[in-house]
Input
Amino acid sequence: MSRILIIDDDPSICVLLQRYLQRQGYSVEVAVTGAEGLQRLRSFQPILVILDLNLPDVSGYDLCQQMQKETGVYVLMLTSRVSAADKLQGFQLGADDYLTKPFSLPELQARVQAILRRQRLKTEIASAPMLTFASLVIDPETREVTRNQRPINLTALEFDLLYALARHPGRVWRRAELIQEVWDFNHEGDERVVDVHIGQIRKKLETDTSKPELVRTVRGVGYKFEPPSGEGWVGEKN
Output
């Protein structure tokens, strides 16, 4: 049974969502403050957190960032903020999806199901081969990435995106293809979410983000992965 934690300062919304998701077969706990949410995150160990941004004791953005540092849990942000800047900030801090109020319960369920499908993808990736370049190692079993023997701390979504790109060196991916491959659903047609996460990967992985070596932009199309010049492809290891 998939575990879902709801963090929202409106008790009526917590009760509504808890009852609805429990009827769909999920195990659900709720919290009405950020501090309580962190406590339940550690004890309940949910797969997914539905997170309101307007909490009484902490910003939902800050809480999302803290949860990503601790566990890499999937996060569905739930908020009345509708601007593109708010959405992009949420994605930059590790959110997997962003649903604005008001919303319908079937829409919420569809978003939850789509995110949890990524959990199954994560399981499939875990049995996939390790990718090894001269200076870069991507291990799907441990979900660890190192470059020049230095560990690179990626979120779950960032790892899945990097692995998808690196598994096919030189292939050019359109943004819509990456959304289907990694997210397994369409972010309401907003493909900028790919750009946000590519930017985060580059910050952590590249020596110079203004001249990326590994994840390169193909103008007017999308992205491709290339080993650094002179390194070449070492291969996959089972």
Remarks:
- The longest helix spans residues 105-126.
- The first strand starts at residue 3 and ends at 7.
